[in-house]
TrEMBL record:
Record-linked InterPro entries: LytB/IspH
Functional note: Catalyzes the conversion of 1-hydroxy-2-methyl-2-(E)-butenyl 4-diphosphate (HMBPP) into a mixture of isopentenyl diphosphate (IPP) and dimethylallyl diphosphate (DMAPP). Acts in the terminal step of the DOXP/MEP pathway for isoprenoid precursor biosynthesis.
The enzyme's E.C. designation: 1.17.7.4
A Pfam short name: LYTB
Entry keyword Iron: yes
Organism taxonomic ancestry: Bacteria, Bacillati, Actinomycetota, Actinomycetes, Micromonosporales
Cofactor note: Binds 1 [4Fe-4S] cluster per subunit.
Protein name: 4-hydroxy-3-methylbut-2-enyl diphosphate reductase
Keyword Transcription belongs to the record: no
Length: 321
């Protein structure tokens, strides 16, 4: 077994899941969450069991109730809808997604055409595009490049979704630059550190592996990308699974080396379940392949921290009285 490191939870997912947990403790159930807080079945089910109610839109939340926005970010109109319904909104958007929103706003204010490389319909892309709908065009991979039209080829920038394949994105950018030589790049990487680090680790193990298993859900963009990266870098096969029980033993037939990683929204316990499943089938020799150290953490959303502080002060005053 080759076990990729880093894998699993990133700082943005950790913060988003903790936001829902702390909100449940502070306000009590139910707490409403617009969209899946992170794209992972197990995480969503576990939070539902604790009293989170997942909805698709704000109009499913009772007036005045608490609603948490997911890690993928929302368009400004979603905040406006929440205000109109007097919802108490807590924004768990990952700060690295917020950074892309800020870039979109800044370039739109300077009247640039913005080419947003990303997957059509993905929540993050919908949220980012909502910041500047008149300036943003979606480019969903290299095949979309020929359809791009811009007002001024000297005033164009590309931005991207945070969870794409680094290599595929650069291929799209190369094609865009052939058509638009003056295309500007974002001031810093939009594909986030966690997405990049997990892809680098998979590239390292894939050439040695007959099979690479990726723990993650089908709607998790970064998890799906990991299976593609594994195949592009030499794995004979790669499978995406939510749980160990989904492993088909036929995938392991004849395999001498199996690689394992997990997407940025996947709790480590699910990886440990896969290791146990494989150990029971003879894959007991596990080597961790470590390609980066991660130390980033994000503070909880300020609106939640404020309420936590007020609750702690009220509890302290009660016990002093
Ligand atoms: S994958 Fe990246 S952008 Fe998405 S939540 Fe994690 S750190 Fe943030």
């Amino acid at each position: 077994m080759l076990l990729a490191q880093p894998r699993g939870y990133c700082a943005g997912v950790d913060r988003a899941v903790q936001t829902v947990e702390e909100a449940l403790t502070l306000y009590g159930a139910p707490v409403y969450v617009r969209k899946e807080i992170v794209h992972n079945k197990h995480v969503v089910t576990t939070l539902e069991e604790r009293g989170a109610i997942f909805v698709e839109e704000n109009d499913e939340v009772p007036e005045g109730a608490t609603v948490i926005f997911s890690a993928h970010g929302v368009a400004p109109e979603v905040h406006a809808q929440a205000r109109a319904r007097s919802l108490k909104a807590i924004d768990a958007t990952c700060p690295l997604v917020t950074k892309v929103h800020q870039e979109a706003k800044r370039y739109a204010a300077a009247d640039y055409d913005i080419l947003l490389i990303g997957h059509e319909g993905h929540e993050e892309v919908v949220g980012t595009a909502g910041e500047a709908p008149r300036h943003i065009q979606l480019v969903d991979g290299p095949d979309d490049v020929d359809a791009v039209t811009v007002r001024d080829p000297a005033k164009v920038v590309w931005l991207s979704q945070t969870t794409l394949s680094v290599d595929e994105t650069m291929a799209t950018v190369e094609r865009l630059k052939r058509r638009l030589p003056l295309l500007e790049s974002p001031p810093s990487d939009d594909i986030c550190y966690a997405t990049q680090n997990r892809q680098v680790a998979v590239k390292e193990i894939a050439p040695e592996c007959d099979v690479v298993l990726v723990v993650g859900s089908r709607n998790s963009s970064n998890s799906v990308r990991l299976t593609e990266v594994a195949l592009d870098h030499g794995a004979r096969a790669s499978y995406l699974i939510d749980f160990a029980r989904e492993i088909d033993e036929a995938w392991l037939a004849g395999a001498s080396t199996v690689g394992l990683t997990s997407g940025a929204s996947v709790p480590e316990e699910l990886v440990q379940d896969v290791l146990a499943f494989l150990a029971a089938r003879g894959f007991t020799d596990v080597t961790a392949v470590d390609t980066a150290q991660e130390h980033l953490t994000f503070a909880l959303p300020p609106e939640l921290r404020r309420d936590m502080k007020a609750a702690a002060e009220a509890a302290a005053a009660r016990s002093a009285g």
